[in-house]
Amino acid sequence: MTTFPGFADPVLDGQAAFRAVLQAMSRPGLVQRLPVPPEAPPGLSPAAAALLLTLVDATTPLCLDAGAEAEAWVRFHCGAPLAEVGAADFVLNAPLRALSPGNEEEPERGATLILEVSALEEGAGWRLTGPGIEHLHRLRVAGAPEGFLADWAANRLRAPCGVDVILCAGDVIAALPRSVAIEEG
Amino acid sequence: MSGYNFAYLDESTKRMIRRAILKAVAIPGHQVPFGSREMPLPYGWGTGGIQVTAAILGPADVLKVIDQGSDDTTNAVSIRAFFRRTAGIATTESTAEASIIQTRHRIPERALREDQILVYQVPIPEPLGRLEPRIAETRRMHAMADYGLMHVKLYEDIARHGHIATSYSYPVMVNGRYLMSPSPIPAFDNPKMDRMPALQLFGAGREKRIYAVPPYTSVKSLDFDDHPFRPIRAPHACELCGSRDTYLDEVLTDDVGGRIFVCSDTDFCAERQAMKEAAE
Question: Please, what CATH class does the domain formed by A10-177 belong to?
Answer without folding.
Answer: alpha beta
